[in-house]
Amino acid sequence: xxxxxxxxxxAAWMNRxxxxxxxxxxxxxxxxxxxxxxxxxxxxxxxxSRQIRRLEExxxxxxxxxxxxxxxxxxxxx
Length: 78
Known about the structure:
Layout: H1 3-16, H2 19-31, H3 34-41, H4 45-59, E1 64-66, E2 71-73
Antiparallel strand pairs: 1-2
């Protein structure tokens, strides 16, 4: 692939990903708690969770393991 095409593809990918999604993920990864991460960002927990899911979909990997009682980082989330 030509360098120009590679940088164009990367720029397009980065434009789709929102900085907000990365911030939400980082806070959730630090706290390992969706509710506390949402409180820190002053957003509703479902909205924060939805943005992290979108980030995972865009990346094509799961970053967090979720169940009803805990949150853990996956290998990709580390």
